[in-house]
Amino acid sequence: MTEMTAEAAADALDRALSGRMDSESVDAIARLAPHVERQELTRLVHTTMPLQSAVLFRVLDKDDALAVFEGLPPNYQAELLQNLREPEVAQIIEGLDPDDRADLFGELPARVVSGLMSGLDANEREMTAAVLGYPREAIGRYMSPEVLNLHADWTAAEAMEVVRARIDGPETVYLLPVVAAGRILTGVVSLRNLLEAETSAPDTAVGDLVREAFSVHALTDRERAAREFLSHRLIAMPVVDEEERIVGILTMDDVLDIIDEEDAEDVARSSGSEPLNRSYLSSSILRIVRSRIVWLLVLAVSAILTVQVLEVYEDRLDQVVILALFIPLLTGTGGNTGNQAATTVTRALAVGEVRIRDLGRVIWRELRVGALLGSVLGALGLTVAGLVYGWAIGAVIGLTLLSVCIMAATVGGLMPIIAKRIGADPAVFSNPFISTFCDATGLILYFTIATMVLGLQ
């Protein structure tokens, strides 16, 4: 089929999945699915409701079904399995890599996992159990235990012979760990260098080709390990235990999955909600509501602080009613300034550019940034408000903008580091809480400056 025909088939399949599930719809799904590309099939399975997804999944051939299944998030894989027949489930589980299998098992009830584990052969069961033995947030949970190790005293020709004999087993052979007795990691060698040595000097010892390895401990936090992986621009990274024995290898696809999940969580929480952990279109209304309602309640309660501040300074507003006109401007500026600082610092923390011990440097830097931003905005506020409402009001607005920007930038840069220090998610301390804090504090600054400049009682 042409690309346009394949696209039309995908659109028709999408419509069939969106309608009522009857015999006619199932026949249409079975007829259209073979003409749709795997990437589009994965999207359709992921974005439709579980029952419709199961119907589509069942009409796929074995290879397409496994490829589509591997492209789904683990939590959605678990939901999909509940709508499949037992033989189909066993076939899928057997086709997964140990690390992907362990990721899926983490979403299933223990009794279901026990039954699925018993259906695996001894080697697959042992490797899967090894990965499941690590905590959920440890990088060992995401590594592949299938590793092709080389020994330093092998020649390049001997090493390549082993690689060719076992090339179908490991998840990657582009970077090969080199080990000493007891599987102690001594370094790595790239497949490219090994091939070059085999061609030009086959008797070259593997030990002469070894370079220092960037490795990670199996109990290291998964996001930290993934960020380190990306910062070094690696294609694979050995995972070791406390005795520096190699226990697995981390590959790019595992790292990208971790980063995608962590970034989705940070984006959701910074905007005042919880991640859905599945596609938007396949999420029920109640699931979406649950992801948002708790944060809305928390923010509604915290916003009472702003109301209380306004109540305290109600008499000042009665004296100079014009002050009320500028409240949205000042609170909005403070919230935006704080959010900008928090987002920047949260990102810097995530990629390792800022550490907890850099707290003082961050505060000093954001204080200066806030002062410069406040100076620009304050000068603009002074000029515009002064020309329209008088220079006394202009002075109040200008000084308040300067003060609010300094305060908001400093607090915005401070909070993510404090969150990291106490073990909380820095994203939680980002936009929602900073906006509320800056609203209340900004109003206090506003009315304090107005009282001083205008001589209010």
From TrEMBL:
Principal localisation: membrane
Keywords for the protein's UniProt record, in alphabetical order: CBS domain, Cell membrane, Magnesium, Membrane, Metal-binding, Transmembrane, Transmembrane helix, Transport
Subcellular location: Cell membrane; Membrane
Domain (CBS): residue spans on this chain: 143-204, 209-265
Coiled coil: none
Membrane topology: Multi-pass membrane protein
Entry keyword annotation includes Transmembrane helix: yes
GO cellular component: plasma membrane
PROSITE patterns in the record: CBS (PS51371)
Record-annotated membrane-spanning stretches: 293-313, 369-389, 395-419, 431-456
Gene3D superfamilies cross-referenced by the UniProt entry: CBS-domain, MgtE N-terminal domain-like, SLC41 divalent cation transporters, integral membrane domain
SMART domains recorded: CBS, MgtE_N
Assembly description: Homodimer.
UniProt name for this protein: Magnesium transporter MgtE
